[in-house]
């Protein structure tokens, strides 16, 4: 086989690679160039965890639904080559004929059920990145009739691999920097997690909340609730938001009752492209808590309305978003006692309904701190900019 490689042929490939470094949406263009260069009708860039519990990718040469719903969901962790010779270190360039003997490939279930009908036979794998429990590689596949990948093509893969590695690293760093800026701009505590609840990043308010031990903790790098009952509900909410391909990802509201009415919004997110690079952000948790939101003090309410200490605490809990049931559970009081407090507070504030009382108190808070409304609007804008999942 003669492989004609010169500067004119390599330049557009390298340009595409470095464009994708700063514009991740252009990775499909990189795959198209690689397919032409290596005479392969299938090329994918693929990332997975070391334990195969999570994986994602984009592909050229297969219908998107076929790749995601069939290959990723059904066959990915039964890949005859990946199972026999998993990526051990970044920098490897390995043809499939060095991974598994052809007779063993022909006998495999994945070959007969999936690869053979699509003429995905001979392959070449470029191991781009390995770290933090993730690996990332690019694979190219072509029919048996095109012949095995020869040494000249392996050498070409080795020539391109450092450029692909630099582009991948740049994409990850830019993605991390963008996520950090957006997370820090959210008013209140916020956490970015992977689908299993492991912490990827948190903002300063989130760090403060964990240090204070107010209902949440970090255990084995996972965001957890201090209460066992609350932790079960939080874990279920994170699992619902972080589901993999083919399942509806759901948002949820979780109230941690032992904490001072800590309310967590758990929602699915996506990165800016159709796939996420290793270390992807899968779940966003942000917190509405008295430690973050109310700016009125107990003394403000006592001085202005003549409330008792208990009545002022009750009013502040309502302002933070707690329901009457939340307040009763937190204080181990009956709902009847809590309703009595509500009646007394409404009488002193000359309001007739709970909603009217909350509007009055929030209006006082906004008057006291002109930044409150803007902070809320700012958080809403930032959430829209980093969340693209199904809510």
Task: Tell me about this structure.
This protein is α+β, with helices and mostly antiparallel strands and 391 residues long. It has three domains: 7-173, Beta-Lactamase (2-Layer Sandwich), CATH 3.30.450.80; 189-287, Beta-Lactamase (2-Layer Sandwich); 298-368, Winged helix-like DNA-binding domain superfamily/Winged helix DNA-binding domain (Arc Repressor Mutant, subunit A). The chain has helices at 7-22, 27-37, 64-75, 80-84, 102-107, 109-115, 151-184, 204-212, 228-241, 298-305, 309-319, 324-331, 335-349, 354-368, 371-386; strands at 42-49, 55-60, 93-95, 122-131, 134-142, 190-193, 199-202, 216-219, 222-225, 252-256, 262-268, 283-288. Strands 2-1-5-4-3 form a five-stranded antiparallel beta sheet, with helices on both faces. A five-stranded antiparallel beta sheet has the order 7-6-12-11-10, sandwiched between helices. It is elongated, with a radius of gyration of 27 Å. The model is unreliable at 271-279, 290-294 and 369-391 (pLDDT under 50).
